[in-house]
């Protein structure tokens, strides 16, 4: 069977002010904060490339050009590192520009995630039938869930979202799914999606986890939604509209790990988790942490 061109473009909404990381985000976009030594957005770009995406559409706002700029080659730096025989560093520096083609689209007003994703449409080729969306705050581990989501779309059509099963009392910051089972325990059909419900109102404990494979019909739905939770144009409400109109929507329940880089508490955990696995820093960090926790 020939592989449908489901995933040429991966959209990364990165236009926010990063208020939870002020004052740093006065000068550095949160997407460029390092997880050990690598900006979070490079982890996202690598995941998109691994899923077969050829272009990364970074939705940005004026003043945050450095996020896309990070993916440009740095020929002077490369020459210097080469001349000094710093092969390993050279490889690190060349990795991001070699991962995937990067394009920028602008979101000029902070009108919500749905509005951010809508800006990507202008950069798509006419024959692109679906897009991936990766929220750069969310690190989903191990990578690979997008590939599974693409398979599910090939099987069932429509749109496929990634979900985590999380405790009910932690559900309200998320988009939450009303689902029914399919033959596969990790794939569920979605009958409704609600953004940031209270724990009592949440239709399940399956929460959207920042990875989406969306049929192109999402753009038409995004044009027709009204401001929802928080007064913002919500991607969740466009997904609900697709469901209302009979488009198939499924979730892949990811049973792995997750980090939220969008707030300092989650970021610190991600940093420590990645550092503990790092060949240079892991062992000494572990020893230090153990000592530190005992005192
Ligand atoms: C966004 C989405 C929400 C999703 C969450 C995952 O919310 O609107 O549906 O569950 O990302 O991180 P945000 O975190 O931007 O408020």
Fold blueprint:
Blueprint: E1 9-13, E2 34-35, E3 38-39, H1 40-50, E4 55-60, H2 66-69, H3 75-83, H4 87-99, E5 101-106, H5 113-118, E6 130-134, E7 138-141, H6 145-156, E8 159-165, E9 175-181, E10 187-195, E11 206-215, H7 217-222, H8 235-244, E12 249-253, E13 257-260, H9 264-276, H10 282-294
Parallel strand pairs: 1-4, 1-6, 4-5, 8-12
Antiparallel strand pairs: 2-3, 6-11, 7-13, 8-11, 9-10, 10-12
| Intertermini distance | 60 Å
- Point out poorly predicted stretches: 1-5
Q: What is the typical, i.e. mean, pLDDT?
A: 96
Ligands, deduplicated? 1-O-phosphono-alpha-D-glucopyranose
Count of helical stretches = 10
Family: Belongs to the UDPGP type 2 family.
EC number: 2.7.7.9
Enzyme class: transferase
Protein name: UTP--glucose-1-phosphate uridylyltransferase
Task: Compose a concise summary of this entry.
The protein is of the alpha/beta class.
What this model shows, in words?
This protein has 295 residues and is of the alpha/beta class. It is 33% helix and 24% strand. It has helices at residues 40-50, 66-69, 75-83, 87-99, 113-118, 145-156, 217-222, 235-244, 264-276, 282-294; strands at 9-13, 34-35, 38-39, 55-60, 101-106, 130-134, 138-141, 159-165, 175-181, 187-195, 206-215, 249-253, 257-260. A nine-stranded mixed beta sheet has the order 5-4-1-6-11-8-12-10-9. Strands 2-3 form a two-stranded antiparallel ribbon. The protein has a two-stranded antiparallel ribbon with strand order 7-13. β9 (175-181) and β10 (187-195) form a beta hairpin. α3 (75-83) runs antiparallel to α4 and α9 (264-276) crosses α10. The longest helix is centred in the N-terminal third of the chain and has 13 residues, at 87-99. The radius of gyration is 20 Å and the shape is globular. The structure holds 1-O-phosphono-alpha-D-glucopyranose (G1P).
